[in-house]
Design brief:
Blueprint: E1 6-11, H1 21-34, E2 39-43, H2 47-59, E3 62-68, H3 74-82, E4 86-90, H4 94-107, E5 111-112, H5 118-124, H6 126-135, E6 141-145, H7 150-162, E7 190-196, H8 201-204, H9 226-236, E8 239-243, H10 245-258, H11 265-279, E9 288-293, H12 301-307, H13 318-329
Parallel strand pairs: 1-9, 2-3, 2-5, 3-4, 6-7, 6-9, 7-8
Helix pairs in contact: 1-2, 1-5, 2-3, 5-7, 6-7, 7-9, 10-11
The structure holds ligand F0G.
């Protein structure tokens, strides 16, 4: 069904390590170095580790990453290892890793760069600034995938700051100067958070013990910024909903084959949710909607190849090539 809306994609796959994480990681690592840190640590479903590894390499400090064994996409693993971080695979999931990172950081001199680090959110809020700059105002809706729930929190902080409004989602870094808002726009968008059905703790209202989804980036059962994300949802009049793995993969492909944008599966969850809520009439006609596409599709080549058309193999002859093309054009 055709709907009369303006739908924009904010593609984060063009950041230095291919995901939105770089926006917050550059701030977190800079502040860690400023404080004299010699090592950082994070738990990750892949993108945080890729970004932490790269920024630690640039800063000349050590980086330790905890990842769930066998559950992170190939491109992300290659980034973490190539940038020289120490990759520790755990026989457990992201939530176990997150708990362990917090425990070990209390015993050893490590700076945690997961999104519980408030500087991460301060960097990631800049997405909202750029959207406002591009549109000249806040959109009616801003949709994004939700995993550990830091990014929806950061978006909301950015929009709130731009509208001169307060938000309970903000946990200001202790030594930061007074929170300054700038009334650049009149209003904030309605925030929409989408989770994968097999990893939808916020939608269900309780932690998911064994989260499972093809969108491994958001395979998280107990998000650390849960309460802030709820605040963003409530204050904006928004909601959280879920998408099945089939819906996520279908929309990932749709975007690649109609817009030429290749995002990773998790990123497609935001758009998949919006398309569903448009069908259901929960999002009104005439709305302006922005979807953050959180990471590049090249991060996860295995999932892409598994669902793409198989290459044809023919002899290296003109006739064979011509035959294929003639068949297609018929
Ligand atoms: N999309 C992608 C591509 C991600 O990598 C993540 C999170 C999210 C969405 C969800 O963002 O956690 O702020 O709600 N990835 C983290 C990681 C968990 O370790 O790379 P969130």
């Amino acid at each position: 069904m055709r709907k009369d809306v303006r739908l924009y994609a904010k593609f984060e796959g063009l950041n230095p390590t291919g995901s939105f994480k770089d926006r917050g990681m550059t701030v977190a690592v800079t502040k860690a170095v400023e404080a004299g840190a010699r090592a950082i640590i994070c738990a990750s479903t892949g993108n945080t580790s890729a970004s932490a590894a790269a920024y630690a390499a640039r800063a000349g400090i050590a980086c330790f990453v905890l990842i769930p064994e066998g559950k992170i996409a190939l491109g992300k693993l290659s980034q973490a290892t190539m940038h020289g971080s120490t990759v520790i695979q755990i026989r457990g999931n992201f939530d176990d890793g997150m708990r362990l990172v917090q425990e070990v950081s209390r015993r050893l001199p490590l700076n945690v760069v997961n999104s519980i680090n408030p500087y991460r959110l301060q960097g990631q809020k800049t997405v909202a600034f750029e959207v406002i700059e591009a549109l000249g105002e806040a959109p009616d809706y801003h949709a994004l995938p939700v995993g550990n729930a830091g990014n929806i929190t950061a978006h909301w902080i950015g929009y709130s700051e731009s509208a001169g409004a307060d938000t309970l989602a903000l946990k200001r870094p202790a030594e930061m100067p007074a929170y300054r808002t700038h009334k650049i726009v009149d209003r904030r968008p309605i925030m929409l958070g989408y989770q994968a059905s097999g990893a939808a703790p916020i939608v269900r209202g309780r932690p998911v013990e064994n989260p499972e989804t093809v969108a491994t980036a958001i395979r998280i059962g107990n998000p650390v910024s849960w309460q802030q994300a709820i605040a963003a949802g409530r204050e904006s009049g928004g909601w959280f909903a879920e998408c099945s793995d089939e819906e996520i993969l279908r929309v990932q492909k749709l975007l690649a084959q109609t817009e030429g944008i290749f995002c990773e599966p998790a990123s497609a969850a935001g758009l998949a949710g919006v398309l569903k809520d448009l069908e259901l009439g929960r999002i009104g006609e005439g709305s302006t909607i922005v979807c953050t596409l959180t990471g590049h599709g090249l991060k996860d080549p295995d999932t892409a190849i598994a669902q793409g058309a198989k290459p044809l193999t023919v002899d290296a002859e003109l006739r064979a090539i011509e035959g294929v093309i003639r068949d297609y054009l018929k």
